[in-house]
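pasting for the record
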Amino acid sequence: MTALQPTLNTAASADLDAPKAATSAPVAISLKTWVAVIGATLGAFMAVLNIQIVNASLADVQGAIGAGIDDGGWISTSYLIAEIIVIPLSGWLAQVFSVRIYLLTNAVLFLVFSAACALAQNLPQMIVLRAVQGFAGGVLIPMAFTLIITLLPRAKQPIGLALFAISATFAPAIGPTIGGYLTENWGWQYIFYVNLVPGAVMIGMLYVSLDAGPMKLSLLRQGDWLGIITMAIGLAALQTVLEEGNKDDWFGSPFIVRLSVIAVVALTGFLVIELSVEKPLLNLRLMLRRNFGFGMLANFLLGVALYGSVFILPQYLSRIQGYNAEQIGMVLAWTGLPQLLLIPMVPRLMQRLDPRIIIGIGFTLFAGSNFMNIFMTNDYATDQLFWPNVVRAAGQALVMAPLSAVATAGIEAENAGSASGLFNMMRNLGGAVGIAILQTVLTKREQYHSNVLSESVSLLEPATRARIDQMTQYFMNRGIAGQAEATHSAIVAIGRIVQKQAFILAFSDTFYLLGIALIVALIAGLFLKKPGHLAGGGGAH
């Protein structure tokens, strides 16, 4: 993205203009460059973290502002819609307004609207504030990725991508832990206030490290506006369908049907426009490149499993084990904390091993962690989830940086914005698709298992009648006087036991599905070609 160059420091600009072939001499990187990269990745971390922190405390937020369970879902949906729209727009908008102005403005807006969300008095206010916060926060994710692949020479990109992996994989994993702790001990408002201090540090780092560059407002007249409009409408409709579909019975709802038609028509139009106009918003032809195309597929499936597992685990612990937000966070901490130790080691591993091997090991471990959870029982809780979560942490830590490095190898500076927008959008879209599928699978498989189990709990079975008699006597001993009322309570209790067991089996099925998705991601990774500058055994330099 050539418009990035005026905004970057001298050393970084030299990196952009220099040949990308590997050289034996080490490339000097200025302190300002590292400050810019670290500041940008801190912003991306906060933007991703905010999604999971709020989701972990959504019930408390809904209660505080008087929102119902169904309508309260829009607190998250509004953020996600705005975020997924702005991610692919950011490359072009950074050219229009300059990287410095665009990034700093949105960083400030993210903090302002984070604080404003904590002051919301009702649901409409919260939805609007969350949408603006999502639009500003969504900018921080692709811009961090873009700065890494344009500011840093290729030999140092694994370090930057490892930093980015902390935002992409560690933040979703640790979000419920932080959100649960803040909500239980400080109040739901602090899930928004928590952004302020690190946000101020981020703004300071970006302010001192990004050089001023001229705005190119003339690009607004040349913009691919038809592409922008169709993309925004299509992605907004698709995200809404994915977020609301299961709750509204999918295509049984006229609202979901209409939105689905809009999404298909708008996104089809967007694809046609982008492949035919002279100056497209996104260079979709990048997906025809072997590494970027297969990398996008693997990244999409990574998003399915990454956000899907963060969705399913809290659901299981809340519904089946009765954990509160803080207890859920403590369980999920073992999916996050080990990544802080492992992710810094990944760049060194990439110097010594073929990065495709690291990607393969990561996907294998991640898939294996889900398969470890497919035989869940009523007693499957904190202790039983410990090792699957640690294995999941190892897999996630190993995947992100090498996958990003291999997928974006050979991407020219002018295509960096498109590559960043597409790559990050696909991971987020994968998360939305994954959660939607898992919600539906959980519902359908619970119904299936409930029907199967109910056949074995017939009132005609002697064992069932004996169990009812036993529980009837139990309830009568606990103060229920009438035989009929105690028998009714016994039948209801047995029904709840059956439903709980059906849910446990359904949760096991969702983990099996996540494991299969990661096996497909592993297969996509096998088609990646090793870039020359990432050769193992020291070849990275």
